[in-house]
Design a protein that fits this description.
Helix content: 10-25%
CATH class: Mainly Beta
Order of helices and strands: EEEEHEHEEEEH
Structural class: mainly beta
Distance between the termini: 13 Å
Number of strands: 9
CATH architecture: Roll
């Protein structure tokens, strides 16, 4: 199979967050998707090696912030190429708590989900969450897509990204 065909699928770029006790943690993800509208169910696929995965399992909740084309590119690197195990990714990052979950302000908005189920793959946990809260911060600026991230920002993918093949 020619896996580069999947490069033509549309993906967003998100910061998935949760809490490690009273400490906010998170990671960059491109595999967040709405499954249904009413009730609103969301999936988020997080690599087993990401500390965020472990913390979502403990907290039973996660949030995701939707990056926009003019979100600071450093957010992607800060949340995507470091581990929350030994780095405070939120230091110097503007965020607030929504329903107890950290959400980033320099974004289009956020959704908070309660985990209702999980599915394990060889490399990732797919969290199924029921959306319990959400807000729009910026309705004008386009959402950042994974294609935009690679084509315009010239970004790279961390080894834990579910999409890491190239043409």
């Amino acid at each position: 199979m020619n896996l580069t065909v999947l490069n033509h699928m549309s993906y967003g770029v998100y910061i998935v967050t949760t809490m490690d006790g009273d400490r906010p943690v998170g990671c960059t993800a491109n595999s967040v998707a709405q499954v249904t509208a009413d009730p609103c169910y969301i999936t988020a696929s997080i690599h087993h090696d990401n500390f965020t995965n472990e913390c979502i399992q403990k907290a039973g909740k996660f949030a995701f912030s939707i990056l926009k084309e003019d979100s600071k590119p450093i957010l992607i690197g800060k949340f995507g190429f470091r581990s929350s195990r030994d780095t405070d990714k939120f230091e110097g990052t503007e965020y607030e708590l929504a329903d107890g979950m950290p959400v980033l302000k320099d974004t289009k908005g956020y959704v908070v989900c309660e985990v209702i189920n999980t599915m394990e793959t060889e490399t990732h946990t797919i969290f199924l969450g029921k959306a319990v809260e959400g807000e729009v911060y910026d309705s004008e600026t386009p959402a950042m897509t994974y294609e935009y991230y690679h084509r315009v920002i010239k970004g790279k993918s961390p080894k834990t990204a579910p999409v890491s093949y190239r043409e």
